[in-house]
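re: ur msg from earlier - yeah i can do the protoporphyrin IX containing FE complex, just paste it... oh wait u already did. ok heres what im feeding in:
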Amino acid sequence: MRNTIISMYQPSHLSSLIRKMQCVVESAAQNLPTSELEDITFSDLSLKLATDVIGQAAFGFDFGLTKEPSLNGSNNVQNDVEVEDFIKQHMYSTTTLKMDLSGSFSIILGLICPILRHPFQQILKRVPGTTDWKVDQTNRKLMKRLDQIVEKRAKDKDRGSKDFLSLILNAREAEKGLKNVFTSDYISALSYEHLLAGSATTSFTLSSILYLVAAHPEVETNLTREIDSFGGHDLMPTTHDLQHKFPYLDQVVKEAMRFYTVSPLVAREASKQVEIGGYVLPKGTWIWLAIGVLAKHPKYFAEPNKFQPERFNPTCEEEIQRHPYAHIPFGIGPRQCIGIKFSIQEIKLALIHLYRRYSFQHSPNMEKPLEFEYGIVLNFKYGVKLRVIRRST
Ligand code: HEM
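and the outut:
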């Protein structure tokens, strides 16, 4: 399975995605309000941006979330009712519907008495108005929409092989044995997992970078200097340029991912009995890797609560001495994130585009300190609110 889709994330395919990514980034950033009194909730914008990008890569579909609606209300994207409905449900479940302690009684009860959580959840799912009911309804609608999308694409014989969904469907048709494994339900679930894995993480990372850089003007100065020296606004960096010609940008991204680790826990299950640090863990034990804790360990990161991109400079002693597995925001080993290069390319392109045109400040309406929601991935409790200043260059 992993091998089937990994080709999508190889350098050759990534370079062909640059133009698509660039179009989404441009349309997301073209009309940011630059009034001194107006806020933008950048985290909402970055979620739209990341969802549009993954929509093109995973589904071969333009969701059009970052496009400005025209006067007649349409945003000139492909007219597909199922996809439109699906994506509305997805945005609703990601931004509005929150399965947190304040919302769900079954979660609170589960903390007090874990054994009661599941039966209670089953009951509350049937009680209209409760969070459990809303989550269940939204999940059902989402999966129904996704099933329709998968079904439609499965019938399309000219689907090509440029996106995740088409690649899996092609693989299913090419190998008879896979038909029973890659059922439509399974493919729908995988596609949704992909959409979630690729949008919430990238969006959070992009927003946290803008938030952190806005609080560190010296970092912004260095960053814009590097970006400006690359060339004029029309010069679009290639995949190779992004990897090699923006060393400071690279350090800023790494440091922001260390500072706010979006996926702070990674799970593994012991496939056989193993001894770790003197503890014998029987087969089947769940092991949680606290990569967010590791990212703040003073043994590997001096003054870990300071935002210092230079600590990732290849000539910095801290970087030279650091254990290679101390900074692993994408996990590690055979189950490491498959979207590393994809998301880094997207994040760097977005940052270059944004800082070429704008500078950012925290809105006075932003809470201090920043508050988070702790789910499968980290999220901002009230969003990242910024003021945008157009640069004069
Ligand atoms: C800043 C962005 C991202 C971060 C921080 C991130 C982080 C992670 C982490 C920590 C894991 C678990 C790895 C492990 O268990 O060792 C993971 C898995 C995964 N990620 Fe990402 N991710 C990001 C973007 C993406 C994107 C853009 C995609 C898709 C295009 C993606 C697809 C996946 C998939 C499919 C898995 C499961 C891999 C497997 O189990 O074999 N991720 N990611």
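cool cool. The two ends are 48 Å apart (CA to CA). ping me if u need the other ligands too
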